[in-house]
Amino acid sequence: MIKLLPLLLTLSFLTIACSTPENQTEATSSTTTTNSSQQQPQEGNVKINLVSPSSQETVKMGNAQLVVEVLDSQTQKPVAVKDLDIKVSMPMEGDEPMTSMAKVEPDSQPGRYKIKTNFGMQGKWDVVAQVKDSQHQGQASYSFNVQ
Ligand SMILES: [Cu+2]
Q1: pLDDT tens digit string along 23-36?
Q2: Residue 63: which residues within 8 A CB-CB, separation 6 or more?
Q3: Which residues fall within 8 angstroms of residue 87, CB to CB, at 6 or more apart?
Q4: What pTM was estimated for this model as a whole?
Q5: Number of folded domains in the chain?
Q6: Spacing, Cα 92 to ligand 1 middle (Å)
C-alpha cells in the first residue's frame, strides 16, 4: 500500500487536466475521502445497495464490474426484480455528460446483479440504478472517483 501511493499520486497529477475541476468535485463529495459514495434516502419500496466495489476500493479507468443488491425496504430481504435500469455518466464541464453502456445480469444470489460497464476516463462518474416494474420501485445513485 505504501509503495503504491506515490504511483497513484503521479497518475492523478498527470491526468488532472482531464478530470472534473476540484471545486466541483468537492461540492458533492466533501464529507468523504473514499472512492465511492452512496446517496440516501431512497424512494419506493426497494433499496438498491452497492455491494462492490466497496468505498475503500480504488476504481480504475477502463472496464469495471459493479455489484448491487436490491432489498425490500420493509423486510430488508433481497428481492429479484424484472427491470433494473442502470445509467452511467460523467458530468463534463460545459458539455454534455459522457455516458457509458451498462450490461446488467443476475448474480449468483437472488436480488444481486452484476453491472458491466466501462469508465472511459479518470474522474467522477455517476451511476444511477432504477427499479421500475409493476411491483417494485426504487432508485439509488452512486459516485465513483475513477483513477
Ligand atoms: Cu470525461
Answers
A1: 444 444 444 456 77
A2: 116, 117, 118
A3: 99, 102, 127, 128, 130
A4: 0.73
A5: 1
A6: 6
CA of 74 to the centre of ligand 1 (A): 38
**Does residue 97 have a cis peptide bond before it, meaning omega lies within 30 degrees of 0?**
no
Compute, in angstroms, the gap from residue 139 CA to the centroid of ligand 1.
Answer: 24
**Residue showing cell 420501485:** 137
List CB contacts of 139: < 8 A, sequence separation 6 or more. 42, 43, 44, 48, 128, 129, 130, 131
- Domain region containing 107: 4-146
In order of 28, 30, 86, 117, the CA distances from 15 in angstroms are 20, 21, 27, 21
CATH number at residue 38: 2.60.40.10
